[in-house]
Amino acid sequence: MHARDLDVEQEILRAIRSIRYGSVEIVIHDSRVVQIERKEKVRLSPPARPGDPTTARGAPLDHAHQTAGGDPAPAWPTHRTAGGPQGAEEMSHAAPCVAPRRGPGERGLPTHLLSNRDLGLQLYGDLARGRVSYAIGVFNGVVDAGSGDSDTNDGKDVAVRVFAHPFRNRPASPLRELGLGLAGTLGRQEGALPAYRAPGQVSFFTYTDTTTVDGRRLTPQAYWYAGRLGLLGEYAVSRQKVRRQAVAARLRHTAWQVAASYVLTGEASTYRGVTPRAPFDPEKSQWGALEAAARVHRLTLDRDAFPAFANPARSARTATAWSAGLNWHLSRNAKLNLDYEETRFTGVAPAGDDRKLEKILFHRFQVAF
């Protein structure tokens, strides 16, 4: 190797080592390196997610970023969103084509009690060599399952999210992809409360001219992926003061879900989704990856919501659902799925005549980048 080649190699290595975030571009002319260009970037937001040009489902732009310990951002799910999506299922949209979330069917019932999209100011970062991620921010605030693109009052929400991968830095550990998290919001908002919908998108609980004054949410969550197997679980609690004319009360709603997936064709199951070893290409006899998924989930409304804030003849108190399905991953960005889901409702009418069992067959084709 010529001395000049050694000098070029050293210059390239120095350029790489000097950048925390960015890129190094090498220009070659007549088989010789003639230019080395270094571009350094300051990251202001979490990685973009499908379905929104900024972040997942319009999660807030992070205007401040701090990484503790001098470690670069890891190539793992960052879990750095405090406002906007807070549940483990919603945050899985950090990966391309993970819909319908990590379980079969539509969104899990716990997402009804969490904020959907919000705008605000957020600080996030990593600790303990990337094993712990944190996010804290102040946001405009929305009601349960609400989305906010504008702000019409002075009320604000404080949102916090902490997520840990205790065994991330142990490559041989079967718990390397174990994630444990806790997220919550606290704030004061006024506005009409939402209707809660079953997986088949039929409304099963509707408030009667009711508004919320203040509320808080808490959602512990966890997932574990090992080889072909993936497990995800979360619990959500929403406490809020509601008012209808002169009547006010504090209501506590809860929801939970457990989802499992298994890749039948041998690829690894991860929180970021499934990447087929052989993307769909019939001419090469390649057929993608096939994944089986199942879920059980439940939403329970506070009994004090009846009859002052909801009509018991038209609204159910609980919805319990199970689902199973197949996901055919044609590539990392394209997917077909077929799912069957049943939902049972209880606590509808004074006479005890519960709403009929809902049976739904879903099918979907999705392309995401």
Summarize the structure.
This protein is mainly beta and 369 residues long.
Keywords:
2 helices; 5% helix; two-stranded antiparallel ribbon; globular; mainly beta; 369 residues; twelve-stranded mixed sheet
Task: Explain what this protein looks like in three dimensions.
It is a single chain. With 369 residues, the chain is mainly beta. The protein is built from 2 helices and 16 strands. It has a 12-stranded mixed sheet, with no helix packed on it. A hairpin with a 4-residue loop joins strand 4 and strand 5. The protein is globular, with a radius of gyration of 24 Å.
End-to-end Cα distance, whole Å, is 42 Å
Please give the share of residues in helix. under 10%
Q: Which range does the strand content fall in?
A: 35-45%
Uncertain spans, ≥5 residues at pLDDT below 50?
A: 45-78, 93-104
Radius of gyration: 24 Å
Main beta-sheet annotation: 12 strands, mixed
Number of strands: 16
Order of helices and strands: HEEEHEEEEEEEEEEEEE
Mean pLDDT across residues: 79
Strand order across the largest sheet:
3-4-5-6-7-10-11-12-13-14-15-16
Q: Helix/strand/pairing class, anyone?
A: mainly beta
What's the overall geometry? globular
Tally of DSSP helical segments = 2
Show the helix and strand layout.
Blueprint: H1 3-17, E1 22-29, E2 32-40, E3 64-65, H2 88-91, E4 120-127, E5 132-139, E6 157-164, E7 177-192, E8 196-197, E9 203-205, E10 211-226, E11 229-244, E12 247-263, E13 289-300, E14 318-329, E15 334-346, E16 358-367
